[in-house]
Protein: Phosphoribosyl-ATP pyrophosphatase
Organism: Nitratireductor pacificus pht-3B
Amino acid sequence: MSAFDLAKLEAIIAERARSGDAGSWTAKLFAKGTEKAAQKLGEEAVETVIAAVKHDRQGLVSESADLLYHWLVVLALEGVPLDEVMRELESRTGQSGLAEKAARKD
Ligand SMILES: N=c1c2ncn([C@@H]3O[C@H](COP(=O)(O)OP(=O)(O)OP(=O)(O)O)[C@@H](O)[C@H]3O)c2ncn1[C@@H]1O[C@H](COP(=O)(O)O)[C@@H](O)[C@H]1O
């Protein structure tokens, strides 16, 4: 299991965004804003789907990494911390999550 995780990538993205470094893809995306970053996110999602349906295992790994990176960039641009998404996912697990889901259907 890799020691790398999405929280570490989120921290790297925040640091690179602040850097304004001309050689930084992250800084360039931040300068262009949510619309461009969300467009890239959509492209990476489509490329991930294509790799999956082609059963291209290495492509699926590589496109998934691109997808997660661009997803975190969009979250950061919109001021949504990764932890908020994790808490949302957590709320959907176990009994309390199921109870909430049932309540939403009423
Ligand atoms: N994980 C990533 C990551 N995944 C994808 N990309 C970049 O996303 C870009 C877009 O991918 P595409 O396949 O669409 O490339 P492209 O065809 O050149 O792009 P367009 O022509 O469509 O604009 C590429 O330039 C990739 O390098 C990433 N760029 C950065 N990171 C992480 O962010 C860190 C900081 O990077 P910089 O901001 O570049 O310093 C890195 O150390 C990595 O940890």
In short: The chain has a mean pLDDT of 93. The chain has one domain: 6-80. Residues 91 and 97 are 5 Å apart (CA to CA). DSSP finds six helices and no strands in the chain.
